[in-house]
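Problem 12. The chain below contains 365 residues. Write out its predicted structure in C-alpha cell notation.
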Amino acid sequence: MTTSMREIDYAKLFSNELRWRDRQLFLQSKGYMLRPRLRPGWVPSWLMTGEDPMDCEDGESLPARSRLVDATRISDGKMVYIKCVNTGDLESQIACALSSDALRRDPRNHSVPIEDVFADDEDPSVSYLVMPFLRRMNSPEFETVGEVVDFVDQILEGLAFMHEQGVAHRDCAAPNIMCDASAMFPRGFHPINQYSLFDDIKTGATILPRATAGVRYYFIDYGISSYFPPGRPRELVTGIYGREQDVPELSSTKPYDPFAVDIFILGSLFKKEFCKKYSRLHFLEPVANAANARDPASRPTAIELLHLWQAQKRRVTLLQSPWYLSRRILPVDGSLVIIPIPYMVWAIALLWICLWAYGTALPGI
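Solution.
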C-alpha cells in the first residue's frame, strides 16, 4: 500500500497538539481522557486500514488554538473543554467567582460553569479550567422566531446578572457567547466535526429542533474583563482590545465605562446576527438601536435593556413564535427579497432538478 503525502500530513501532529499530547497522562490522572490522536504512542488508524484520513476519527486535527482542548470525562463519558490559564490570573478569578456554588444556583447566571480547576504538576504557574463542551451560539443555525426570543431572553438576563456581580465582560461579541446544545444531539457529536457522530464521522449526527430540545447560552472568555467585587467602587477603564471594534468610546488614554461597552456590543450582535440577517424580527430592532446609542450615557443599563426587551417581546404572539425565520437576500437590482430558510433549501434543490432535466432533454447532452 502506497502512502500519499496527505496521509503523511495527517499523521503528523501540529505544534498546538504536541503540548497537549505531552500532558495527556497527567490529564488522565485527573480524570480526563484526550482523543486517541493526542495520546502518547498514537499510530494513525488509516495506515493500518487503508481508509482515507478524512474518514477517520483520529484524522480530525485540533484547531489552531494553543490553550483549549476537547476531552472526555472518564467518570461519566461527558465531553468537556479544558482551558490552560495562568494560575490565579484575572480571567480564572472571574470565571470561578461567577461559578461559585451560590451563584451557579441562580437561574439568571449565564456565565460558563467551571466544573474543575487544578494546577499543572510540572509548572505551578499553569492551571487548567474544565468547562462543559459548548458550541457556537448559532450552531446549528436559528430557525424560528421563538428560538431568537429565547436567545435574547437568556443573554440579556445573563448580562444583567453579570453586571449585578460587578463584572463587565468587555468582549461579549458572538464568538464569546456559546451554547450547551447537547440535548439537540441525542446520539452525541464529534468535538471537531460537529455535525457527525463521535465514533463515526462518516455518519451525520441526529439533530433535534432547539425549541424541542432546549438550549442554554453562556458567556465565555473573561480575558479582558473588569471585575469590581462587592464593596469596591466601579471605576472607568482604558483599553482598545476586543472583537467588536465599532464601540465608539474605546481608547487607550481616555477612560470610559466598561459596563456601557457591554451594552453596545450586544446591540451590535443583535443587529448583525439577527436584524440584518433575518426578517420577522422587527420587535428586536428598538432594543438593538437603544443599545447602540453612540453616546454611552444615552444607553440603557443592563437591567433597563432587559426591561425594554421584555416590553418588546410582548409583541410576539404564540402564533408568531413557531414562524420560520426568513433570510434576507439582496439581489443585483438592490431590491430586498425574503425567503424562509426551509424554502431556500427546496428552491435550490428544485433549481438543480430543472437544470438536470433541461440538460437531458437537449441532443448531445
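Discussion. Residues 331-339, 360-365 have pLDDT under 50 and may be disordered. Students who got a different answer should revisit the alignment rule from Section 12.3.
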